[in-house]
Amino acid sequence: MELFTNILYAYFLTVIIELITICSFYKDKQKIVYFSLLINAITNIPLTIIIYFLPTNIPQYAIIIPLEILIFVIEALFYAFLDKKAYKKGFLVSLIANSSSVIFGLILNLIILLI
Fold it and tell me: Is there a contact between 81 and 67 (Cβ–Cβ < 8 Å)?
């Protein structure tokens, strides 16, 4: 049950944070909401599962950083194709959205550790 809770928590927080960013770049808000839900399900859920089962003797950043870079690229290409192959825009949107959610997640984890 803990894994399921972690997946839902990470997924919905990521979607909320990224949608706030992404919606400012696109006119068709309904379309971007659906596609953001889909792409984050494809990228965020596996990342959360990998982090959950990560052995404690491996530094998390050694796995998370390469995976976050891969997620950034996947989402950038997705957003670029969503907007008629606007690669610069796709990479910018993905960079800002993913940076926002990573920074928010790090701050939230720090707050939780301090409580």
Answer: no
